[in-house]
Amino acid sequence: MRNYIIQNGINSQLIDGLLISELPPITKPLMRTQTEEIDGRDGDITIPLGYSAYDKEMIIGLYGYYDIDKVVQYFSSSGEVTFSNEPDKVYKYNIFQPVDFERLAHFRTATVTYHVQPFKTSAIEGVVSSVARENTLEIVNHGNVKSKPEITLYGYGLCLLQVNGVNALHARINEYLTIDVEEMEAYKGSVLYNRAVSGDYDDLTLPVGRSVLSWTGNITKLEIKNYSRWI
Q1: Residue 131: is its pLDDT beyond 80?
Q2: Does domain 125-230 have CATH number 2.60.120.860?
């Protein structure tokens, strides 16, 4: 099967003449650490600080009929990408390093460097919704690290969210409110509503495996996505 990528919902196979010659290898992000040496103690103390973003290089080519302007436009982007050697995973990416499109036009090959965030989410899991009038929702993080999902609440007034019976966030809803745990933002449509939320966003992280979300207040529906995460 021919290599491909899906970038912001557009499959590379739909770009005339674009060939994905070589996909990036599947690698693990680097853990950032801090080391401390203490007088009188052998060795050092290593403190993990979190995973680093990293670069993934992909080789592209041209064949047959192509429109170089459309290829340029396709790679002048940022957002989400899926590689065909990981068809069930989504990376968040930016392309900071310039692509040598002149080389691509003359020699039919070039390198694209994706700067990706360390965590991957599922390309196949959809949105999970609560049943009307129920105040609990069971969710499974199928990944290998704790996840920071996006949760949308529908209803009115003040509510309390809990994860596995532990209080997480208070939120004031007016029709609906979206809480992005990874970005630590709350918004309604395109308008930020951070003042509508109080508490620690990290308390809404989901451990690997099964969790139960529960809530109090006048919430008519809860939707959650990006609930599985991998390194």
Answers
A1: no
A2: yes
Cα–Cα distances in angstroms (integers) from residue 25 to residues 83, 129, 229, in the given order? 10, 35, 19
Which residues contact residue 114 at a Cβ distance below 8 angstroms, ignoring those fewer than 6 apart? 24, 55, 56, 57, 58, 81, 91, 93, 94, 95
pLDDT at residue 39 greater than cutoff 80: no
> 81-113 pLDDT, tens per residue?
999 999 999 999 999 999 999 899 888 999 999
- Specify the 3-state DSSP secondary structure of 203: helix
What are the C-alpha distances in Å from 225 to residues 53, 121, 210?
A: 22, 10, 15
Q: How far apart, in whole angstroms, are the C-alpha atoms of residue 180 and residue 201?
A: 9
Quick one: pLDDT at residue 76?
94
Domain definitions of the chain by residue range: 5-121, 125-230
CATH number of the structural domain 5-121: 2.40.30.200
Residue 132 has pLDDT above 70, yes or no: no
Query: Torsions phi, psi of 91, nearest 5?
Result: -105, 145
Nearest residue to 61 (alpha-carbon basis) of 22, 97, 92: 22
**Three-class SS state of 14:** helix
